[in-house]
Specification:
The chain is mainly alpha-helical. The longest helix has 31 residues. The chain is flat, with a radius of gyration of 26 Å.
Length: 123
């Protein structure tokens, strides 16, 4: 039983060591950095433009929808590249072809749903 818990002890020691190194690096950074705050340095800064108005702005939901669609297509591309490499391997042709068409069917179904709900219109 000691061997079983011994492996957990090694993991905990390494975790504590990693946390100590991380905390030491942060402490060294705080101790060695220059600290000369001025009013100009403490002002809000956004892309080189002086802030105007309030700090609160609302975003429209459609921007999030386009972000989700981008993520869907990015995931689709991530799955297409390994599929293309495995497709040429012997014994994987028909099975991987069917699986990819099922996957692409789900993606197409999501795009048709978004199109029917008029999510893809930019107005």
């Amino acid at each position: 039983m000691e061997e079983y818990f011994g492996s957990y002890a090694v993991v905990l020691v390494l975790l504590a060591l990693g946390a100590a190194i991380f905390a030491g690096a942060l402490a060294a950074n705080r101790a060695l950095r220059p600290d000369r705050p001025t009013a100009e340095k403490l002002a809000t800064y956004e892309c080189g433009v002086d802030p105007v108005g309030e700090g609160w702005a609302q975003s429209q939901v459609r921007y999030y929808v386009f972000t989700y669609l981008y993520v869907v297509f990015a995931v689709d591309a991530v799955f297409l590249f390994p599929w293309a490499t495995v497709f040429a391997a012997p014994g994987f042709g028909p099975a991987t072809l069917v699986e990819m068409f099922v996957f692409l069917g789900f993606i197409a179904l999501g795009i048709v749903y978004a199109w029917r709900k008029r999510v893809l219109t930019w107005t």
